[in-house]
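Sorry, any thoughts here?
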Amino acid sequence: MWLPIRVFVGSALIGLAAAAQPGSVLSSPLARSSEAGPWVLVDTQGRSISDRDLKGKPSVLFFGFTHCSEICPVGLSALTAWMRALGKDADRLNVVFVTVDPERDTPAVLATYLSNFDARIRGLTGTPAQVAIAAQRYGVSYEKIPLGGDDYSIRHSMTIYLTNREGRVVNSIVPQDTNEAALEKLRRISRG
């Protein structure tokens, strides 16, 4: 069972890097060992969730959106496989997908979308202002790109942020990381 996970995740990472065509993503600065700061969002059940609710467990935060055609489903598939590979260590983590498209990504839309991935991945949304505050706290870049008519896409950074139990950003997973490097980073924060 380990070999298919390795092959899948390795392919996912290659796909994640390949999906990052020029102009499709934005770079995202990482403020290492800094607390992201206060934010409040809403989960898929409509409950208010803040940065304080994640404290006490290390967290994995991935910012994206449900209409994303490549980067987000590949990233969430990789997270799902990594969590499976971590086994019980994955239960020690908060794993959160935060939308950068709150206009379309309601709690119900996020719940349906995330049902395709590991059940432990929680979805968060909010008002555009709430999402902007949370994104700013982690240094996440995103930008709405008009596609014609009312349609649009969103260019966004691909960094997956790793925080310690106190909510401080201590590491990140980026598309250039190997499968082994990503798993080691996740294992380290889950045990630390």
About this structure: The longest helix spans residues 2-19.
